């Protein structure tokens, strides 16, 4: 890495002056936007939205607006920040970090300086420059691999606030490469815990929106594992000036479906398998009834008869359209109504009328049109008078009117619906799962992709996006993948995850396995290898666990050590809650107690009030699943053996739990420690 230069207060003063000028420029732009916004009163909503978005954007990028400067060997200096700014003469003042020319800020090293002589990290608070950190890159130097190391270390060691921060000032080269990868196709980012997958995915969204305007119109969707997680990352994109991204969990992706139940692991696995799609399709198909004999339908007092061959023909024709069930049902209905209308018209026309309207052939026994015939014709809008007996009994308009009145007739509709019923997604899934009382069907997270699949089979459309980001992607079942693919017809996706952290037994064991059915081999893999969250001491504590369950998987390379060795404490089952409650606050900072579900109630009682429910509390109680993607200054694992034993992927859950710590890790085990943790120092 480059050599640090001595920094004088003069240099801080120079940067302060520049920063003040930048803020003055943004103040002026904001004022202008506010004026324009006021001027749009009464004008179209479009320009109101544009100016409102501009004010929001300018407010959002204020904090840390300018964070870097590159001094080039052959040209002048460039300031790097959260947006591009130009002075009144259109001279550049600040370069958006996403612009191609800003790239060297993240990738230049002493070994490959990319024309950069000096890289300066500028730390600001509000409108004040508080620190500068320089690297000189034109000296011969070994390449340490990290860019802006002092600023990076300051960022990763800072206390956690409970909300994720953006890392735009200290992005590393391996991360920058992924962020700027082509947006087309599926990019999988695999990396161990704390390697910045979430951070990279979110910065990639900001980069893609900046670079590809069409994505602003088409929309970007970010999928996360839980609402707590989405809340945790919720500030990152707005801080990068992006407010339009939709974030959701898979379970929340279907409006109107409330998840209120947790399935046992075996059920979750079963519901997650792709074969459920075939079962749902078969279930929907089976709802179409082929009658064995003729079907009699009452219409306006007459009996119309559908013969089974006509029904079969209509089913075949409807299926041939390839339309989803409910739409194909309309084709089926229309087909049979046509048949019925023909049938009715033939019957009516077989009545040959005299000039005075008397029937001389067929019709009713007395040779006149029956009452029912007249009613049917009247219902179809055909007026048959005694004096002006119809010359053409049924023209095209009459036939259409006849079809419409057949279609509108409740008796006809009920008969057709009985053959090809109109279905709801909830009904189909409840039926397949054998849920007795449909109205009370309360859904689990694993039911949501089934409901979505059923809805698609029935012909409901869902919103689609130009790019979809899937975080903690290893947790998604095959059915959940199908659901997401429907939302991304262009298959432009960023998928980030870690197969060693899969906790959902229906989740991924291999990327190939979950992606190939949708994109064949058109996906590419990028890896992140450096761990920014967990210090070396915590990484070491997980070594035996990782080796036992994922032999061959290398843990992330930690960029720092804290000197704080993880410890474990043995206790008795009886004392366990009290010991956890006593130790948790002593860990200092923002602390997570991570425990298996079976202990949550007991521990919630023992811990400070609110811990169980308030993720922003100083001490928060979480299950490993809830802790996914989050991080804390300190973590206390409560009963690791129970976490390991809670399900087939308990070892991955324990790995997730241990790697949430940015500084300190403690373990409380009632009884002997699991073998995987025996090497952790006993206290
Ligand atoms: N280049 C960087 N500069 C500063 N901080 C970074 C950098 N990269 C990652 N971090 C920090 O490291 C921590 C872990 O990042 P992140 O949550 O994105 O990791 P992850 O790979 O998604 O982890 P997990 O798999 O455990 O969910 C975050 O606090 C993030 O801000």
From TrEMBL:
GO terms for molecular function: 3'-5' DNA helicase activity; ATP binding; DNA binding; hydrolase activity. One of its GO terms (biological process) is recombinational repair. Keywords: ATP-binding, Helicase, Hydrolase, Nucleotide-binding. It comes from the Bacteria. GO terms for cellular component: cytosol. Pfam families: AAA_19 (PF13245), UvrD_C_2 (PF13538). Residues 170-535 form the UvrD-like helicase ATP-binding domain. InterPro entries: DNA_helicase_UvrD/REP, P-loop_NTPase, UvrD-like_ATP-bd, UvrD-like_helicase_C. ATP binds at residues 191-198. PANTHER family: DNA 3'-5' HELICASE, UVRD / RECB / PCRA DNA HELICASE FAMILY MEMBER. This is DNA helicase. It comes from Saccharothrix coeruleofusca.
């Amino acid at each position: 890495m480059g050599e640090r230069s001595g920094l004088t207060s003069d240099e801080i003063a120079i940067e302060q002056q520049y920063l003040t000028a930048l803020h003055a420029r943004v103040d002026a732009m904001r004022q202008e936007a506010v004026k324009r916004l006021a001027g749009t009163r009464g004008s179209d909503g479009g320009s109101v939205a544009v100016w409102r978005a501009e004010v929001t954007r300018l407010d959002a990028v204020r904090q840390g607006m300018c964070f870097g400067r590159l001094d080039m060997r052959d040209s002048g200096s460039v300031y790097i920040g959260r947006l591009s700014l130009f002075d009144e003469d259109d001279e550049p003042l600040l370069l958006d970090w996403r612009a191609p020319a800003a790239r060297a800020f993240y990738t230049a090293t002493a070994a490959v300086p990319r024309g950069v002589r000096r890289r300066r990290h500028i730390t600001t608070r509000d409108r004040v420059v508080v620190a500068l950190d320089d690297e000189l890159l034109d000296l011969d130097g070994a390449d340490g691999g990290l860019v802006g190391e002092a600023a990076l270390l300051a960022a990763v060691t800072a206390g956690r606030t409970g909300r994720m921060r953006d890392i735009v000032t200290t992005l590393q080269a391996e991360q920058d490469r992924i962020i700027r990868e082509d947006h087309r196709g599926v990019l999988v980012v695999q990396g161990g815990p704390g390697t910045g997958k979430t951070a990279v995915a979110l910065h990639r969204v900001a980069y893609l929106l900046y670079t590809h305007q069409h994505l602003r119109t088409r929309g970007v969707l970010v999928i996360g594992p839980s609402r707590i997680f989405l809340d945790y990352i919720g500030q990152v994109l707005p801080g990068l000036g992006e407010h339009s991204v939709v974030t959701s969990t898979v379970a929340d992706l279907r409006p109107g479906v409330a998840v209120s139940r947790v399935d046992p692991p075996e059920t979750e696995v079963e519901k997650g398998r792709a074969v459920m799609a075939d079962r749902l399709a078969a279930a929907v198909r089976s709802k179409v009834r082929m009658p064995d004999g003729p079907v009699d339908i009452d219409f306006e007092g007459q009996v119309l008869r559908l013969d089974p061959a006509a029904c079969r023909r209509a089913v075949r024709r409807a299926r041939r359209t390839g339309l989803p069930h409910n739409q194909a049902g309309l084709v089926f209905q229309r087909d049979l109504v046509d048949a019925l209308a023909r049938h009715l018209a033939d019957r009516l026309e077989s009545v040959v009328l005299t000039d005075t309207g008397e029937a001389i052939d067929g019709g009713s026994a007395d040779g006149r049109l029956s009452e029912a015939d007249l009613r049917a014709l009247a219902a179809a809008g055909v007026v048959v008078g005694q004096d002006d007996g119809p010359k053409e009994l049924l023209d095209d308009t009459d036939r259409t009117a006849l079809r419409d009145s057949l279609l509108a007739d409740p008796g006809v509709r009920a008969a057709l619906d009985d053959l090809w019923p109109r279905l709801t997604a909830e009904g189909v899934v409840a039926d397949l799962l054998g849920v007795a009382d449909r109205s009370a069907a309360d859904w689990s997270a694993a039911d949501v992709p089934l409901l979505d699949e059923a809805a698609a089979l029935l012909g409901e459309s869902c919103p689609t996006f130009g790019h979809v980001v899937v975080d903690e992607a290893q947790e998604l079942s095959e059915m959940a993948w199908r659901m997401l693919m429907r939302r991304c017809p262009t298959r432009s996706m960023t998928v980030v995850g870690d197969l060693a952290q899969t906790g959902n037994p229906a989740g991924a064991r291999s990327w190939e396995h979950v992606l190939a059915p949708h994109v064949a081999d058109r996906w590419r893999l990028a890896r992140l290898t450096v761990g920014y969250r967990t210090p070396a001491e915590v990484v070491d504590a997980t070594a035996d666990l990782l080796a036992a369950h994922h032999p061959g998987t290398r843990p992330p390379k930690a960029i720092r050590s804290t000197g704080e060795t993880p410890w474990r404490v043995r206790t008795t089952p009886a004392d366990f809650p009290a010991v956890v409650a006593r130790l948790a606050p002593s860990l200092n900072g923002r602390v997570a107690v991570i425990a298996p579900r079976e202990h949550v109630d007991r521990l919630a009682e023992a811990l400070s009030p609110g811990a169980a429910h308030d993720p922003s509390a100083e001490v928060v109680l979480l299950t490993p699943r809830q802790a996914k993607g989050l991080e804390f200054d300190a973590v206390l694992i409560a009963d690791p053996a129970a976490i390991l034993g809670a399900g087939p992927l308990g070892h991955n859950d324990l790995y997730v739990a241990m790697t949430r710590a940015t500084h300190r890790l403690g373990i409380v085990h009632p009884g002997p420690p699991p073998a995987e943790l025996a090497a952790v120092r006993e206290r």
